[in-house]
């Protein structure tokens, strides 16, 4: 069994099966979030295993919400009139760096990613019943690093949430997004 499968089924899943998993997945009462990291090349297998985990948790009465960061990105770009064709045209005319900066500005200021994520959580979400999976973080590469997303969700999301993070662990609390970017070492949430 691969390392991430072991962490998924023997560490994360038992914690999420608890009546109230918040204290197991986080040391911060106002940030009941955790990060599950995995090798970016295993994305499609992780998606399958995550779907199976979702089903197992639903079978014990958990209400699961899966939020795709790829969908959130598309929502943000559509809201700002930047569909895929315009994004390609922008990159061709001003270059990749300027396009990345524009998308980052959209997700940071005009259509904040944390607000988009929070909008997808049921209004009646309860910590003892609900679990949120935040998936497809790789869709943001290289446009937006997810290092601050969970911190920005503080006060907006009160139920257990897991960010599925395609990246490599670097030290005890550092993660390298997609395994290529310099490691961010400012993660407060628990890393599985």
Query: How many beta-strand runs?
Result: 6
**What is the share of helical residues?**
40-55%
Distance between the termini: 16 Å
The computed structural class is alpha/beta
Rg (C-alpha, Å): 17 Å
Description of the structure:
With 192 residues, the chain is of the alpha/beta class. It is 44% helix and 18% strand. The protein contains 8 helices and 6 strands. The protein has helices at 3-17, 22-25, 43-59, 69-79, 84-94, 96-110, 113-119, 149-152, and strands at 33-38, 63-68, 130-135, 161-170, 174-177, 190-191. Strands 1, 2, 3, 4, 5 and 6 form a 6-stranded mixed sheet that branches. Helix 8 links the parallel strand 3 (130-135) and strand 4 (161-170). It is globular, with a radius of gyration of 17 Å. The two termini are 16 Å apart. The mean pLDDT is 87.
Write the layout of secondary structure elements.
Layout (H helix, E strand, L loop, with lengths): L2 H15 L4 H4 L7 E6 L4 H17 L3 E6 H11 L4 H11 L1 H15 L2 H7 L10 E6 L13 H4 L8 E10 L3 E4 L12 E2 L1
Parallel strand pairs: 1-4, 1-6, 2-3, 3-4
Antiparallel strand pairs: 4-5
Give me some keywords for this one.
18% strand, 192 residues, 6 strands, single chain
Précis, in short:
With 192 residues, this protein is α/β, with parallel strands linked by helices. It has helices at 3-17, 22-25, 43-59, 69-79, 84-94, 96-110, 113-119, 149-152; strands at 33-38, 63-68, 130-135, 161-170, 174-177, 190-191.
């Amino acid at each position: 069994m691969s390392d991430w499968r072991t962490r998924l089924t023997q560490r994360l899943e038992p914690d999420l099966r608890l009546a109230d998993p918040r204290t197991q997945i986080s040391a911060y009462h106002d940030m009941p979030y955790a990060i599950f990291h995995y090798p970016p090349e295993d994305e499609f297998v992780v998606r399958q295993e995550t779907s199976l985990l979702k089903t197992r948790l639903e079978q014990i009465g958990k209400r699961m919400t899966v939020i795709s960061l790829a969908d959130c990105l598309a929502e943000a770009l559509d809201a700002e009139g930047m569909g895929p064709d315009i994004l390609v045209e922008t990159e061709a005319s001003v270059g990749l760096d300027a396009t990345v900066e524009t998308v980052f500005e959209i997700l940071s200021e005009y259509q904040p990613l944390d607000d988009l994520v929070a909008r997808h959580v049921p209004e009646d979400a309860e910590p003892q019943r609900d679990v949120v999976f935040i998936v497809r973080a790789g869709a943001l590469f290289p446009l937006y690093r997810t290092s601050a997303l969970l911190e920005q969700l503080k006060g907006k999301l009160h139920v257990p949430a897991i960010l599925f993070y395609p990246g490599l662990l670097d030290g005890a609390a550092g993660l390298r997004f997609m395994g290529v970017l310099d490691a961010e070492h400012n993660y407060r949430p628990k890393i599985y």
